[in-house]
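Hi Q.,

Before the meeting this afternoon, I wanted you to have the zinc ion prediction in hand. No need to reply - just skim if you have a minute. The sequence and ligand are here:
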Amino acid sequence: MDNETDYVCSSCGEEIVIPVDPTQGRQQEYVEDCPICCCPMVIQIEIRPDGSVECRAYRE
Ligand SMILES: [Zn+2]
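Predicted structure with the ligand bound:
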């Protein structure tokens, strides 16, 4: 499966690559500060049965 994914920060517009930890489950949601602008983003990750990773992010 993909072990990293990316999202676009809605605050600064940068593409952020993040690691995916499959041991945390197929659906994950957590808050992470954007490493570029430090805006808190809610990250939603879904690992599909075929191993591909869907990632969404929105401002908290
Ligand atoms: Zn940002």
